[in-house]
Amino acid sequence: MDVQTGFIVLFCLMSFTCAEPVKFRDCGSATGKVAIVDISPCAVQPCQLKKGESYSVNVTFTSDVKSSTSTALVHGIIAGIPVPYPIPNEDGCKSGITCPIQPQQTYHYLNALPVKTEYPAIKLVVQWELKDETKKDLFCILFPVQIVS
Ligand SMILES: *[C@@H]1O[C@H](CO)[C@@H](O)[C@H](O)[C@H]1NC(C)=O
After folding, report:
1. Which positions fall inside the MD-2-related lipid-recognition domain (predicted)?
2. What CA dihedral angle connects 84, 88, 89 and 95, to 10 degrees?
3. What is the pLDDT at residue 2?
4. What distance in angstroms lies between residue 31's CA and the mean position of ligand 1's atoms?
5. What's the 109 CA to ligand 1 centre distance in angstroms?
6. pTM of the predicted structure, to 2 decimals
7. Which of 64, 67, 136 is nearest to 103 (CA)?
8. Which one-letter DSSP state was computed for residue 52?
């Protein structure tokens, strides 16, 4: 761990509102490019998600295209199988993005990741896609999480 990471971890352990960039993998962003993924609070990685709580997600991305709509699609990948993961609002244009989306513009996509109490306490990978008006992925990201009780 380098000095900068050490400071971020220390800061995150002391703070509940910390939003440390999460390590993510791109899973085929076709019409945009992701810069930063923030989950808050997430002090350690993979993010520990407590049952019954809700986490805020902030994806900073740049669009390559114009799009009048944007629709989110979230899956939890459990043992290799994608299972639909319900989120409160799948309309990206109501999640921090001013539509129509313009090319070469940077946006902060803001949404909540609720963790239901009935979810099992397992590790899984969250796949979060945001589709443009032609159903292509403005972004597609994968990040691991651990559900804890
Ligand atoms: C989202 O993340 C970006 C980049 O880290 C930051 O500039 C912006 O303030 C964040 N927005 C919110 C509402 O947290």
Report:
1. 24-145
2. -120
3. 77
4. 21
5. 9
6. 0.87
7. 64
8. T
Which residues, given as ranges, of the chain have pLDDT below 50? Answer: none
Q: What is the pLDDT of residues 106-142, one digit of tens each?
A: 999 999 999 999 999 999 999 999 999 999 999 999 9
* 25: number of Cβ within 10 Å: 11
Amino acid at 61: F
Q: For 42, how many CA atoms within 13 A lie in the half-sphere containing its CB?
A: 25
With a Cβ cut-off of 6 Å, ligand 1 is lined by 36, 38, 58, 60, 108, 110
User: Which residue among 20, 57, 58 has the greatest number of ligand 1 atoms within 8 angstroms of its CB, and so is best to mutate?
Assistant: 58
Domains of the chain are 3-148 (2.60.40.770)
Q: Which residues pair with 56 in a beta bridge?
A: 40, 112
Ligand 1 center from residue 108 Cα (angstroms) = 7
- Report how far residue 77's alpha carbon sits from residue 114's, in angstroms, rounded to the nearest whole number: 16
Cα pseudo-dihedral 88, 90, 95, 100, rounded to 10: -160
- Residue pair 130/137 in contact (Cβ under 8 Å)? The answer is yes
Distance 50 CA to ligand 1 centre (A): 23
Instruction: Record the tokens describing residue 18, joined without a space.
Output: 């910390």
